[in-house]
Amino acid sequence: xxxxxxxxxxxxxxxxxxxxxxxxxxxxxxxxxxxxxxxxxxxxxxxxxxxxxxxxxxxxxxxxxxxxxxxxxxxxxxxxxxxxxxxxxxxxxxxxxxxxxxxxxxxxxxxxxxxxxxxxxxxxxxxxxxxxxxxxxxxxxxxxxxxxxxxxxxxxxxxxxxxxxxxxxxxxxxxxxxxxxxxxxxxxxxxxxxxxxxxxxxxxxxxxxxxxxxxxxxxxxxxxxxxxxxxxxxxxxxxxxxxxxxxxxxxxxxxxxxxxxxxxxxxxxxxxxxxxxxxxxxxxxxxxxxxxxxxxxxxxxxxxxxxxxxxxxxxxxxxxxxxxxxxxxxxxxxxxxxxxxxxxxxxxxxxxxxxxxxxxxxxxxxxxxxxxxxxxxxxxxxxxxxxxxxxxxxxxxxxxxxxxxx
Length: 406
Known about the structure:
CATH topology: Jelly Rolls
Helix content: under 10%
Number of helices: 3
Largest sheet: 6 strands, antiparallel
């Protein structure tokens, strides 16, 4: 009888734990509130003033940062990042990134921008591209969210571009991402930043909120985890540039795994850009990942649903394309056909793992055969093209490892 009672109570116990996780212990932190990200080199000082620990703008206003402080959570916790965006007049689609500078990392893109440090010497193995891999006490910035701004500027001119199937142009886009895997890097004081590759004075406005949900009950005990940043080819600050290394060689990164690590996972974000119609933005290119010379993941990063984002892209270029339309004739009550001209927008076109107005989800790969000690991860995009002005082919790739320590 007692045994049956215990069996009956166990599901209720775990259900109670799950409900408490969802409903209690929630904390919301406003990171940015309708802040402008734009290009205005005459406005912002170098070095940036960090004395107030308030909003900081660098790179001529193209990056905003804020210092955040969180405790070391003792129980299971979830972290969610929400970003809302609107165009202030920039009509173009641009690469964007929300990133993290972990606590205690003195040599980082912010301190390098301020002239306190320099990027580590970039050797032949990375063809002189600075700051894309770790070296010594420098680690590349860890991405929290990759996104692409839409062709988002609404004006009188764009009102006539709205197709009949769009009820209205949306004035903003909201993205939400689970970033729990990077929570170990957010203990103590750290910086969160947003970068947009804008070159207009109007730019964009961003709001961002971090939500932490910690269970107040011991049944949701914390699983200790560690995070190792590996790679980030985004050109956040001066001295960095479009990374087209994959057109000539694979990129190898060393990763030390401790003895007590288990369930090692690789998180990998990749998007192709540039080159106009025949470039890496618009042509399918396989991405391949190797662990110690053995292929562990191979996929084609591609989005063919970009037309579903049309309502966020009022200022997208529009062309006419002939097509044969089949339609129901109300007079004959039968289907007829005729040649029509349909509108097609640039934002409708398929792209290398992104659409104008989309967030980019990371690929998550369980590395079953990784061994304690030194390991080599190799990132390959064999058909990537070189960057030649104005055809600036490049790949924005970031990667990090996460493992449990018990």
